[in-house]
Each structure stands twice: as C-alpha cells, then as structure tokens.
C-alpha cells in the first residue's frame, strides 16, 4: 500500500487509465526520468497493478496496461485528484 | 502527498474520522508504537490535516482532530478501504 504514496505512482496509474501505452508515451506524458519511470513500472508490475505486454514485432514492442486490480483503483485516484484540486490548490494561494 | 502513502497514516486518519481523540486513545486503537504515532501526528499537523488542541486541565489534556482539509480526505480513505478489502484480501487467499 505504501506504493500508492510513492512519488509519481498516482500519476502513472492515472496516465494508464486512458489505456495501454508504450514506455515512451508514458515518459513523454509525465515530467519523470526514464530510470525512475522504469523503476515505478517494475514496482507496479510486482504489485499486480500493471501488466507488461511484449509484442514480437521488429523492433520488439512493449506495452504497459492496468490489470483489473489496477483499474479498480480508478475511484481512489479520482478522489485523490478531487481532494488535491481543492486543497493543494488552496494551499498555494494562501 | 507522499504522506498519504506512509505506513499508518491512512489508519490514523481513518481513526480520527470518528472524532477528536487523545493520544492514548489513538495509540490503543492501533497496533503502532507511541514514538511512530507521535511522528505521524506531527507530519499530519505540519500538512494541515490534523489539529492538536491543548486543554489547560490538571493534568493538561491534549486532543487530536481532523481539520477541514483532513476531513475532506474521507472519500479517499473510504475508496482505499473498499479497494483494499477486495484486492488485498484476494491476494492473501490466492
């Protein structure tokens, strides 16, 4: 469960809510280094939240997608975002 | 935001959803050491999620309660719990 609090995990999950994506697509969508993104994706895979699919194209194609367990986090991610929009925004202006 | 992922934070917030409580009440409700509970409460106070109220009784009485910002996390905590009930439970039996 601590994984959910790790920096970038929520944003990576949120990014994958819009469907399977390649590493480069996720990397370009988020202000995160390739090394850290790769580390977080491995964590998420180990926790059974993300699935890594390798396609034998030439060159080989690798796609990441949410598992059922990962997709089930959608309400959590959305509530965190609603809360952050209201309270984190408020803190910056205060 | 990483604070939400830290071990015990969610359970402390969940515990305080039922209203203001003294340190000893929180400590007895959760399998957590006094030192760690005190550390987490300080973190939560710094983030503006928890309020620490000192009453000038004899002996002095200290109560912890959720701020508005803390209470606004209720939907997040409830969704995490729903998810954990379904998926974390499932993992243990598999």
TrEMBL record, chains A, B:
UniProt cross-references to Pfam families, sorted A to Z: HxlR
PROSITE patterns: HTH_HXLR
Residue ranges of every copy of the HTH hxlR-type domain listed in the record: 1-92
InterPro entries: ArsR-like_HTH, HTH_HxlR, WH-like_DNA-bd_sf, WH_DNA-bd_sf
UniProt entry keywords in alphabetical sequence: DNA-binding, Transcription, Transcription regulation
Transmembrane intervals: none
Domain of life: Bacteria
Protein name as annotated: Winged helix-turn-helix transcriptional regulator
């Amino acid at each position: 469960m601590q994984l959910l609090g790790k920096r970038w995990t929520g944003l990576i999950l949120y990014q994958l809510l819009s469907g399977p994506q390649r590493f480069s697509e996720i990397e370009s969508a988020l202000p995160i280094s390739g090394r850290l993104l790769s580390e977080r994706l491995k964590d998420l895979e180990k926790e059974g939240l993300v699935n890594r699919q390798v396609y034998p194209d030439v060159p080989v194609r690798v796609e990441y997608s949410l598992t059922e367990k990962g997709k089930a986090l959608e309400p959590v991610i959305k509530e965190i975002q609603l809360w952050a929009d209201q309270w984190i925004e408020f803190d910056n202006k205060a």
